[in-house]
Each structure stands twice: as structure tokens, then as C-alpha cells.
Amino acid sequence: MIEVNDQDGLLIVTLNRPDKANSLTEAMLSDLAEVVEGADPKALILIGAGEKVFSAGADLEEARAGLATSPLWERVSGGLAAMQCPTIAALNGTLAGGAFGMALACDVRVGVLGASFFYPVARLGFLPQPSDPGRLAALVGPARAKMLLMSGAKWTAEEALNFGLIERLVTRENLMSSARGLCEPALQGDAANVRAIKAMVR
After folding, report:
1. At 174, is the pLDDT very low, low, confident or very high (cuts 50, 70, 90)?
2. Predicted TM-score (pTM) of this structure
3. Do 23 and 63 form a contact (C-beta atoms < 8 A)?
4. % of the chain at pLDDT higher than 70
5. Residue 60 pLDDT level (bands cut at 50, 70, 90)
6. C-alpha span between 54 and 52 (Å, rounded)
7. How close are the terminal C-alpha atoms of the chain, in Å?
């Protein structure tokens, strides 16, 4: 399920299905899309429940039934990318498969020590979601994007940091405080100015 907690303008969105590695169902994706398309917070943090996995991507049973190619993935990532406020992916563990799209669409990605990163679409016989390769290549470069998507490479957290996939690597205990710290200017200062800066970077 998707949990949404508004803390005085900071919207914390949690993928809460830890017993299934936070794998995403159609209903969860639909809820996520509605949240990011309809919300207008000062800042947003996207995080997974539990201590090992941010998200394993699509629920396997639903993926086989067609979820792997659903337009909902693109709705979620497009909605996140269009948000005017700062968006932080607080990657509390491993990031895999289709869940890459929502992390790539955020402004900043903070990962934890011990996490791994892989997007095995080539092995599974699927294409990545349409916007994912471009966003990935913009962060890590075309060759590394091809390595991740075409060869099924699995990156460690340290490699993800060195390659530019994540911007900060922290201990699990410091993850939320680090993510929240990145939001402070928008929460405590002039949110409109922060949004203007984001628009200028785009």
C-alpha cells in the first residue's frame, strides 16, 4: 500500500509492502500517480518501508499479467518529474526494475550503505519505461546506462554513488534526517524561490 504523511508541507510518501520487498501492484501505482499528480507540497520525500529494499519493482504475478508494460509507471515518473517542489528519493535499500523510474524522476537520490541497484529488463524480456533510459543516461552517462539496462549489471551503493546514480550515501540511521535536511530551505525559507531555482535548472 501507499502511505502519505503530510508534515507541515513536507509530504512523505512510503511504499509500504515490506513483506513483498515493496513490490508495486497496479493499485499501488494508481495511488502513487494520484498523489503526485494532485499534491502541491513544499517538498516531497519518497521512501520504502523496511530496512532492506526500497522496491523490487513490479509485483511478479501482476507483471506477468501485464503490469510490466502498464502506462501507470510513466504516469508516476512523469508526475514526479513535473512537481515544482524539491523531490527526494530516500532509498532505504535495494532499488530494482520498474521502481527505477520514480527514483530517476526525483530531483535527488539518497542511498544507504549496503543497497544494490539493478534493472534487469533485458534478461526478463521487457523494455524499460520510455523516459527511464534518458533520465538514467543524463545521470550516469550513455555507456553506464547501457551497462545497467543491457547487461543486467548489479551496482553496489558505492558504485552507484561514484557513477552518479545517487548523490549521497548515508547510514540507514541517517537516511531520513539527510533527506529532510535537503528539504529544509523549501520548508523553512521561501518555497517559491526554491521552486524558481528548480525551474531554472530544468
Report:
1. very high
2. 0.95
3. no
4. 100
5. confident
6. 7
7. 31
Residues 166, 182: Cα–Cα separation, whole Å = 14
Q: How does strand 43-48 pair with strand 87-91?
A: parallel
* Nearby residues of 4 by Cβ (< 8 Å), 6 or more positions away: 11, 12, 13, 14, 35
Q: How far apart are CA 84 and CA 140, in angstroms?
A: 24
Estimate the crossing angle of helix 72-82 against helix 26-38, to 10 degrees.
20
What is the structure's pLDDT at 64? Answer: 83
Domains along the sequence of the chain with CATH: 2-201 (3.90.226.10)
- Return the SS3 of 14: strand
Buried b (16+ CB within 10 A) or exposed e, 30-50: ebbbebbeeeebbbbbbbbbb
Alpha-carbon dihedral sign for residues 148, 153, 157, 161: negative
Encode pLDDT of 132-146 as tens digits: 999 999 999 999 999
What mean pLDDT, rounded, does the chain reach?
Answer: 95
